[in-house]
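Input:
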Amino acid sequence: MKHTVRFQPDNITVTVDKGENLLSAAAAAGVYIHAFCGGDGVCGKCKVRIDKGEVSSGKANLRQEDWNQGLRLACQTTVSSDLVVTVPDKTTAGGKALKRKPKTTRTISARSLETLTGRWNVDPPVTKLYLELDPPTLEDNISDMQRVMRGLRAVMPDSLEPSYDHPELIKVLPAVLRESDWKITLLLLHGRRQEEPDRIIDVEAGDTTARLYGLAVDIGTTTCSGVLIDLNSGKVIAEASAYNAQIRYGEDVISRIIYAGRPGGLRTLQNKVVATINAIIEDICRTMIISPADISYIMASGNTVMSHLLLGLDPKYIRESPYVPSVSQFPLTKAAGLGIQAHPSVRLFLYPCISSYVGGDIVAGVHAAQIAKSELVTLFIDIGTNGEIVVGNKDWMVSAACSAGPAFEGGGIKYGMRAANGAIENFYIHPVTYDPMLITIGRIKPSGICGSGLISVVAELLDSGVIDQQGKFNRNLDQPRIRDGRDGWEYVLAWSQDSLIGEDIVITEVDIDNMMRAKGAMYAGYQTLLESVGLTFADLERVILAGNFGAFIDLEQAIRIGLLPDMDREQFYYLGNGSLLGCQISLSDVRRFRERVQVRQLITNMELSENPEFMSHYMAALFLPHTDMSLFPSVRDRLADRN
Amino acid sequence: MKHTVRFQPDNITVTVDKGENLLSAAAAAGVYIHAFCGGDGVCGKCKVRIDKGEVSSGKANLRQEDWNQGLRLACQTTVSSDLVVTVPDKTTAGGKALKRKPKTTRTISARSLETLTGRWNVDPPVTKLYLELDPPTLEDNISDMQRVMRGLRAVMPDSLEPSYDHPELIKVLPAVLRESDWKITLLLLHGRRQEEPDRIIDVEAGDTTARLYGLAVDIGTTTCSGVLIDLNSGKVIAEASAYNAQIRYGEDVISRIIYAGRPGGLRTLQNKVVATINAIIEDICRTMIISPADISYIMASGNTVMSHLLLGLDPKYIRESPYVPSVSQFPLTKAAGLGIQAHPSVRLFLYPCISSYVGGDIVAGVHAAQIAKSELVTLFIDIGTNGEIVVGNKDWMVSAACSAGPAFEGGGIKYGMRAANGAIENFYIHPVTYDPMLITIGRIKPSGICGSGLISVVAELLDSGVIDQQGKFNRNLDQPRIRDGRDGWEYVLAWSQDSLIGEDIVITEVDIDNMMRAKGAMYAGYQTLLESVGLTFADLERVILAGNFGAFIDLEQAIRIGLLPDMDREQFYYLGNGSLLGCQISLSDVRRFRERVQVRQLITNMELSENPEFMSHYMAALFLPHTDMSLFPSVRDRLADRN
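Output:
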């Protein structure tokens, strides 16, 4: 349910979900409110007055007289109806709200996702078929398996004869047939191609057609996520995620590859990711009160290193030039053979990879977004340690990975951290006083800055003139938060008393420099790929942001620092976890399932690491937003406005 | 090398191989010679005079004066050149040679086998392909497997893209490619159908195309036999066989099924047959100085129970009416997965079975003999505990099993034994004195009677009037060997001093009765099958005898007792071990390999066990040769001759 919130005195209205936090609503509206403690209620700065409408609010850190006057702490208040809210002068520290930012980013709603993915059918590659067979007699004593085949032919007369190559199946078949009085349910796996016959992969006693589940798994370097789908309805019925238990052996793929080279290392890493998937399965099954044996198949995707490690393939040559993976189209694998807690019949499909650093997660995302079916020239971006980029449409696609570095995952940033509770994820600065408005994940005191927070901080510092386009602090501003610290110039995001870690949380020039390298690598990647096919940014008709990180990026801020191209905001789409979504769709619809290999074959990869054009674009991008300001007209205008 | 031996005074000539035993040569010629000790040289009865030519001979049990006169013991003498041999009056005990029997049976020669099997190609379903690949560069860094696929496409541009689903393959591929400097040999398995793509099943460093071997295995209830084939030349290069180590858990399939039902029994039996196959592989590899890893694939066949046990399938329902096997078309199986000492890539193919008691060994034999390609209406027979019968031609085939009982394997016969050293395998009787001429396996003193010996004994006893057509002894003959013994009337084949076991070896009326039941079941089987398709014996154009036992049957004797139909002797063929031969051919020629499943599908099985027609034919067949003598005109004439 939606409500409108009108902020006074600036008369800015925003539409939010019921239950939305009022501080976040203000941030969304571009209304600046003092907020130093991340939303924890301790700094007591974010007082607003509720003029009209219902809210739900806590009283912490608010004097009784304030309460009686209708004042509330925005960070402790949630929206219960349409509201009119006045932000007192004191709260905005100057009575001047920020200019309202255009609300251009398309949110992840079912409708907008469908414009990307299209509709898919509930016609999964694994199906169940209930059969009632005639019991054998002396006149009709063909083998049990022949009887099953004959029963199948009777109901599917026009299909190719299914195959069966699963020894466990024929071991259990005689007992299942007899205990069920010759009434059984077959589990059929459709062929990888239309012309390929089905395969019988399991048999169950009685009619079990109502129980048919598939698991989609995104195997991330940091986090693995699983979604259980009821394949009869196509509905998601449970979700779970867990940190990839490999993480203790290295944060990124390179350190995992190194660890895999140690004695027993490969085996350990394989076991760890399998344990992670098992934890997700257990979690889901506990929630849904189903047995892991009820999961009939698994569709997974991951980057090339994660895919190799899951299958126990040595990723060694992925790290060494010329960066060659063992395999890009993974063979059909039995989940139980890997150690996954699944019925022996369960196949685990892995999305094919493109190259050593453009993996199955990207193919799954490109597939989910159906780029290969669209006329629109699309830039597909997944930002992380390795930023992966795909450019193309239904006629051609090129891909590349650019080593953005770990800045967006908190690496190389003094107070950088993962997107966990306490991470500053959203930041606004008061244009006059340069005081911060912090919003943290979990609305607790800040303990650091996550990737989306970093973008937010740098964009706001730039916008307010606290830093210049080279990322250097303005040494002349009168604000104690801007200071020459131990590691050079810095801005204090949170004083020690407002921080969870008991020390000042700052962003330094070195941090900003690292972030600029990261975003510069991404942007240089877009340019190099486009040029490789003779295009420019002007030819782009659509940008799709994939990945969990992508989903939290503020579009305006990301464009302002030069991470994303300066295009019509209506041309941007948030896909969310495209890797997981691709798996979900392939799991549900056999036509999509069969498409996924062709999608991968349409994509030509380009190696950027030693490419001179890339290097030159990269150097030019080490500026906020870019040395060539003609590429960023909206930012140019805004910065000019400011001056 | 062949030599002729002319026996005097009857002037009967026979052609034998150089090195043939002279007693056996006489038997083949139908020349009766006293021989009581089975060919051991101890009875000293079989003296003959070498008139012309070279022999190699021992002096044991021959007086010097006899030696000086040119006398030799036939059983201790082998043929070294063309010979003229006189059989002295004393040696034939009456100077009267047996009537020469017509030499009608076609022997197992390469030529005559080829008239059955046709020529097959050396174009095996598993092939090797040597590839020299371009090493990867930054501009060309597709995955190792893609590089292999591209190399394959370059040399096989018109083929379907091969598949690969063998996880070990992609695990070793990167190392193999790099250590071999990108020069590799692929092992390819052709599809089961023409339209099915090849499958890459292994990769080896360098050019190993010269080493390509396949193993054919016949998995018998008693004996397993293996043949190693060089798949580059199609030549058999080594053979080995071993008793099926399951034998200690039961002699026949029924006792094995019972044992399989005990706790751990199935697993034990599977392990034992796997150990037997491993022993054969070791034996062959030791002989040929190759590694088991050089064997690229295995084609096996066995009866339905043996096939089930090898794959670890419970044979329980095979024994219970209505006699249903779990599966008749066996799934593709990895040999190593069963515990067979083979490279992990090696597939073990099992010939499909027809029914619970007509197994893959029969399909392999029918396939080897190419009955499904012939116009000739053929009766295919494999005689053992379970006699299996197939009738048909290229248009239709019907099969049945008839429980002949164990008589032909030595069971239910007082001195019955397997076809091992000391077993009487050939027997002739002197038509006047009723003295025996015994030939044993291994030419040692007799210790019992094997199946072919039993046929020989009963046929000779009938022919000489020692027994009548009901199998009862003529109580009026003046020969101490014919006596009323402890178990009723019997004939002494060997006195205790001439026997290995130190007691009289006899054949009793009970023995003869059991043998009649066995042959009666077989004959009733032929009749019932023929009638089921509206035919009679007159419609038969060919009889093929399969199985090791079949190869040792004397055609005349077998017809005389009513085990085989009384047809033109030219219409009989000995196939030998058709099960092994079928495996060999399928191993060598992919077209035959693909045919084998269709052959099985052409055959319709008939259950005889509770069939009233079968029972009535069976009762009529409990006579020597049959109650309906019009079915055995040649035997009728011969018996009439005698009287």
